[in-house]
Design a protein that fits this description.
This protein has 6 helices and no strands. The chain has about 160 residues and is mostly helical. One of its GO terms (cellular component) is cytosol.
Length: about 160
């Protein structure tokens, strides 16, 4: 025993790959992700091995701004700018669709419907649900990319050991 994690020895690549597959399967089963995420993964290759995580991190950065804007609009007691809220929600829906964030996109659709009806209470409920779904997505994709990073490290160690 070396006391090192198996993946550091290059022995856990298959297990890490299986962990990634199980997590993705769970997220698809729960409706958190859709096939667009798989299409995004197909764009990743050796020339840009972190393509998906880079795109998703841009999505997270932009989504944080959109959530702040939505929160700010709804925190105003005299709120009446449902049109501006609709613009933010359309941006959120589009970017969520582009990475395959199905449940986040679906909440945006319901949120937009509430804003189109000038339903402040409905918007507040939708914002709470949107923040919940967004946090769940962010945590699960963070977990996915951590496992992927471990798998890449393990594969690299295995490769060096074999040479």
């Amino acid at each position: 025993k070396t006391g090192l994690p198996l993946w550091l020895l290059g022995l856990g690549v298959d297990r890490l790959r299986a962990d990634m597959s199980r997590l993705l399967a769970l997220l698809f089963h729960q409706g958190v992700l859709d096939e667009q995420f798989l299409q995004l993964q197909q764009l990743q290759d050796e020339s840009c091995p972190n393509f998906v995580s880079k795109v998703v991190n841009i999505y997270f950065h932009e989504s944080e701004k959109l959530l702040r804007n939505l929160r700010g609009l709804l925190s105003d007691g005299e709120f009446s700018d449902y049109k501006k809220m609709g613009i933010h929600l359309n941006q959120f829906m589009g970017s969520s669709s582009s990475i395959g964030a199905k449940r986040v996109r679906n909440v945006c659709v319901a949120f937009r419907a509430a804003s189109e009806q000038n339903n402040r209470a409905g918007c507040l409920r939708a914002l709470e649900l949107l923040e919940h779904e967004y946090c769940y997505l962010k945590n699960k994709l963070h977990e996915f990319f951590q496992i992927e990073q471990q798998r890449v490290l393990a594969a690299g160690v295995r490769y060096r050991i074999q040479n």
